[in-house]
Amino acid sequence: MEIFGIPIQAMMGQLLIGLQNGAFYAMLSLGLAVIFGLLNIINFAHGALFMMGAFGAWMCMTYLGINYWISLIAAPLAVGAIGVVVERTMLRWLYQLDHLYGLLLTFGLALIFEGLFHNQYGSSGQSYPVPELLQGSTNLGFMFLPNYRAWVVLASLVVCFGTWFVIERTKLGAYLRAGTENPRMVQAFGVNVPLMITLTYGFGVALAGFAGVLAAPIIQVTPQMGSNLIIVVFAVVVIGGMGSILGAIVTGLALGLVEGMTKVFYPEASTTVVFVIMAVVLLLRPAGLFGREK
Amino acid sequence: MTRNQAIGYGILLALLMIAPVVVYPVFVMKCLCFALFACAFNLLIGYTGLLSFGHAAFFGMAGYVTGHSIKVWGYPPEVGILAGTIVAALLGLAVGWLAIRRSGIYFAMITLALSQLVYFFCLQQSWTGAEDGLQGVPRGKLFGMISLEDPLSMYYTVLAICVFGFWLIYRTIHSPFGQILKSIRENEPRAISLGYDVDRYKLVAFVLSSMLAGLAGATKTVVFQLASLTDVHWHQSGEVVLMTLLGGLGTMLGPVVGAFTIVGLQNYLAGFGSWVTVITGLIFVVCVLAFRRGIVGEIEHRFLRK
Predict the structure, then answer these.
(1) What residues of B are in contact with residue A103 (Cβ under 8 Å)?
(2) What is the pLDDT of residue B210?
(3) What is the C-alpha separation between B54 and B42, in angstroms, rounded?
């Protein structure tokens, strides 16, 4: 069976890879959006923390013999803890300043993290095996579905929509949204806003760490794995606009799919298509698809 | 320009004139190219309040165009540099036209993303030599007379180009146009309500800045006879931000001081491999947390406030 002269297996395979990349974009841009909402900081270190999540899983396996499933919880917690320390010791001092300083500080942090790992492990990749339970693939009749890729998409969807649910539908989320609108008022009502900010940053970067562990078995674990990804995620964030949580998730997944399609029909453009879409969106709807003009 | 400032600039110029006698000329030329690059960048961040995180695109692209036109088309160096500068300005027009639709953090992200687009473009094109870059670009003869193979004539050519760029930036900042840019930086809504077409001023500043960044990149290609992917990579964009931040945002000489410091530091630390990245990151963090005025800004604040 063929669609536009492309065998359907090849097409579905690329679409699945696209969907899986979209899942990473969604998780990372969701983290960025949550952090930006409350801290007004664009976390440039997000890519480096994604990388540290992947390395965390690899280190758990190599040095401690801890398996994938425990790493999936432990590594994001560790990354989140690093985030909490960063927020408490550094970001805290920047809230009164121009937002750009937050970008510059986290850029510096990204360089430090990347440099340290590069120093220790070099630029060649470490490989991380697919966990036994998810090896192999399932025959869907029209294509073979690799189990691990399916798991990545599923896990990230659960995490993304879980986050959406907590923020939009629970009391905790209501505090968070109120804090985004007017932190001083929320503080006046007796909510510990500084603690909330710390935990939000910790949670946002833990999401990046989680994405990193998910990525470890499919992408080579290298110190640079996060930095190229984060620039694409920035473009995703510009396209979606950071006003809405659901918007970040949907835009991420959709752009992953578009990128996958591009790989099928015009492979030369697959690395740049997201940036081109960003340019078009800027022309037609400068605030982003789901953004609000502030 | 006050008398003291004129004397200061005079001394600096004199020092640069005699520098190649004392210091390795290629090192000073590298510093000068980056100083011009950082000054061009500072025109945006320091005087217009726009943080472009994609200036390497103009720097690197101009380098490629210059390298290609000299090496393959056989242009003389001055025409090659001019071609690189013009292409950088046109690229700046396109990028700026898109990016000024958003401000603040979004502006930084958009410029970064578009420069990544330029990076991939350079990676895929054949005329840029992809991974290898353009190597062995001949320096040629300036105006068909002066051979730039001679290190000293190369040095004074670079110095002249950089002094010209610096003068252009100085004139821009101290013109009515520059004052309007500053008013946009300080209070954009007020500038709009005073009737200024803010977007047009931003765009002109952006094109000017990318053009001068291109001039710096083009000159660097002639000096090193090389145009490579390093110059279009986002690391380079980050580096120029750091130079300006370390030297002092919004000061005339800050970017120059920052560029000399960072290039010197990299030269000194070249043997330490990836520790350079870590140290660069640390300087970033320290500058943002505790040293936001930068070297020149701090000196001005301490000693020169009336």
Answers:
(1) 51, 53, 105, 108
(2) 96
(3) 13
pLDDT tens-place string over residues A275-286: 999 989 888 888
pLDDT tens digits for A141-198?
A: 777 788 898 899 999 999 999 999 998 899 988 988 888 888 889 889 988 889 999 9
* Per-residue buried b or exposed e for A53-73, using 16+ beta carbons within 10 Å of the residue's own CB: bbbbbbbbbeeeebebeebbe
Task: Output the CA torsion sign for A84, A176, B101, A99.
Answer: negative
Boundaries of every domain in chain A: 8-227
| Residue carrying the six token digits 């980050």 | B238
When scoring B232, B246, B274, B282 by the number of chain A Cβ atoms within 10 A, the one with the most, hence best to mutate, is B274
Pairing of strands A6-7, B141-142: unpaired
Give the global pTM: 0.91
Q: Which pLDDT tens digit goes with each residue over B254-303?
A: 999 999 999 999 888 888 877 888 998 999 999 999 888 888 888 888 88
**For residue A144, what are the CA distances in angstroms to A9, A131, A147, B9?**
8, 18, 9, 70
Side chain identity at A34, as an amino acid letter? V
Q: Does A87 touch chain B (CB under 8 A)?
A: no
Ordered by start, the domain boundaries in chain B are 23-231
- ipTM here: 0.88
